[in-house]
Specification:
Layout (H helix, E strand, L loop, with lengths): L8 H36 L2 H10 L15 H8 L3 H16 L20 H4 L12 H13 L3 H8 L2 H10 L1 H15 L3 H13 L1 H26 L1 E3 L5 E3 L2 H15 L8 H21 L1 H25 L14 H24 L4 H8 L1
Antiparallel strand pairs: 1-2
Amino acid sequence: MTVAIVPSQEDAASHEDAASADATADTAALIAEDARDFGVYARTGGWAFGLKVARSVRPGGQSAGETPKVSAKEFAELAGCSADRVMRYYKAWDKAADDGMVPHFEALSPGMDVELPDADVWLSYYTARSSALTQRGEAITQAAEAEGIRPTKALEVAENPTALRAAILADPGTAEAARKALMDRLDEDPALRTELVRDIVRTDDLKKAVAAESKAGDRVDYVRQIVEKGQVKTPAGQMIDAPAELREEAERHLSLIDELDDGEESGEWAREAYDTVRDLVAQTVQSDPELRVQERRAKFYSSLQKATKVFEELTFDDVDDIDDIYEDDMVKRLEDLQQAIGACISALQTAMPVRPEADQDARA
């Protein structure tokens, strides 16, 4: 007869303690392994994973029979990720190898360890987005590097135009950054410039705003010319030397405009400066008898030139039957104009014997 031997309580407790100790040791080993892997990544960043790709994926040009390494596709299947992701690590390592930062693929074999560069350097070679591999992506990457930001940020924005639109609509700071970027791009992108102009022309509010800004700009230029060139244009179109008082006043107003913050409205300041300067110009003309006569002469010539141009265009060459366009008041208006012109001619003819030099000056 077989007798079963029941283990003592001491033996059972001993087994439980041993099992618990083994579990604790296994857990500690797992934690230590995670810590080591974390330490490697903390020191080297993406280089740690780039090395795994570089030493396990065969380089281009090598067949399966020449090396124990596997293709990027096979490696991706083993890793449970896409081949594109593997190739991004592959190409980053390839660029770094060309720069002498790491060994070339041919010098590496599966399981081999090498000294890796610092983690921060990895970002100079690796891009987390496949769009960076295209011509468009390369241009975005270069622009991002020129601005001193990570290319991945710029590429992410470029891949999400709807998100960019939402940020522009919601945030004034983002909208301002977008506006400045567009202005910087206009010189090298005629098509974009044309489209922006068309958008402005098609929008009434924008057309009015552009007209207002253009007017303000012209007024500022008028004041600036007085300060920089020391000359001013009179209402009749004469260019005269600006008196010291006029230049000082123009300089004072211009300094106020130049001190305005970016984005601050300059229209009211420009109007005030322009009106003040124009009043001083008018006073300058009126206070100088000779200049006042020259101004009247210039104004008369300006009006005469405009009237001459209008009458030169006033013909019936393109009219088949004059009866079709005839109106009762046409002849009356022309007769009134004829009388006014006759009065001007008579007045000038009367003045000719008295001031022949005036006529010579006028003809000159």
